């Protein structure tokens, strides 16, 4: 079951600096929410509060009725909140298929089987095939990660994250560093994510945000300035001034 994620009165102080101010919002099941805001607004801090890298000063993070705010990072992943792995977590000498096998075996408590022959893995191989199909990376299955283009590596990283079967997926700048010639692969992959997954996209690239998000939250100085549809956000005078002022538009 996935009712989405509710964040209630979430605050974080670093000494005297308040970087998350009484944040209350929901990431409903199936939503595609973008979190935008100028540098230093608190976007990364917010993501770190959701994943458990940081402990909140106050407030609650509720997933399907359970307050997960005090769980460790790994327990939160098991509960269903996952952020994309960093590319450095990919095993560069292993193939895409081998990389995908690892988190699935781990999820199933079967890592001891990694070095066995693949005979007993038909369920796992079928899941890997589905994941690759969802992200349109089947042609890369038997290629070592080392030889893949950067954008392709980001797709493998996304597939690895999906392999843990999250309910809430945080994409932290999914197109960062990806050449513009490859960024459409990322956009297409986000559009093809499972329908019932709640997705939070933290992104500076407004074109990508407008292509994939159905809701946008604008964060400024650790507080929500506004929340609305992409059209509502574009029409907002304060947002326009903020972005024109920051040279983003
Ligand atoms: N560990 C920390 N200790 C003290 N201050 C911190 C710490 N981490 C972040 N900050 C401060 O919190 C504020 C928000 O930072 P954060 O990185 O969350 O912003 P951001 O919106 O992600 O910025 P960017 O778009 O540049 O990545 C900044 O003023 C930053 O200097």
UniProtKB/TrEMBL annotation:
Keywords: ATP-binding, Nucleotide-binding, Transport. GO terms for molecular function: ATP binding; ATP hydrolysis activity. The keyword ATP-binding applies. One of its GO terms (cellular component) is plasma membrane. The keyword Ligase does not apply. Residues 5-246 form the ABC transporter domain. Gene3D superfamilies: P-loop containing nucleotide triphosphate hydrolases. SMART domains: AAA. Belongs to the ABC transporter superfamily. This is ATP-binding cassette domain-containing protein.
């Amino acid at each position: 079951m996935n009712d989405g994620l509710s964040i209630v009165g979430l605050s974080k102080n670093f000494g005297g600096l308040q970087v998350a101010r009484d944040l209350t919002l929901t990431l409903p099941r199936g939503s595609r929410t973008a979190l935008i805001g100028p540098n230093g607004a608190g976007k990364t801090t917010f993501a770190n509060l959701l994943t458990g890298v940081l402990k909140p000063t106050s407030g609650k993070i509720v997933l399907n009725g359970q307050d997960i705010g005090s769980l460790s990072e790994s327990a939160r992943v098991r509960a269903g909140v996952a952020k994309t792995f960093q590319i450095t977590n990919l095993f560069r000498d292993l193939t895409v298929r081998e990389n995908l096998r690892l988190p699935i075996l781990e999820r199933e408590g079967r890592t001891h089987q990694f070095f066995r022959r693949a005979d007993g893995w038909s369920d796992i191989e079928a899941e890997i095939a589905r994941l690759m199909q969802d992200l349109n990376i089947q042609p890369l299955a038997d290629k070592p990660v080392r030889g893949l283009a950067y954008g392709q590596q980001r797709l493998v990283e996304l597939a690895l994250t999906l392999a843990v079967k999250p309910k809430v997926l945080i994409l932290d700048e999914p197109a960062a560093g990806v050449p513009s010639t490859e960024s459409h692969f990322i956009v297409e992959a986000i559009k093809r994510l499972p329908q019932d997954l709640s997705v939070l996209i933290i992104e500076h690239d407004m074109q990508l945000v407008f292509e994939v998000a159905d809701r946008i939250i604008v964060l400024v100085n650790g507080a929500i300035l506004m929340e609305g549809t992409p059209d509502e956000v574009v029409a907002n005078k304060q947002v326009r001034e903020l972005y024109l002022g920051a040279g983003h538009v």
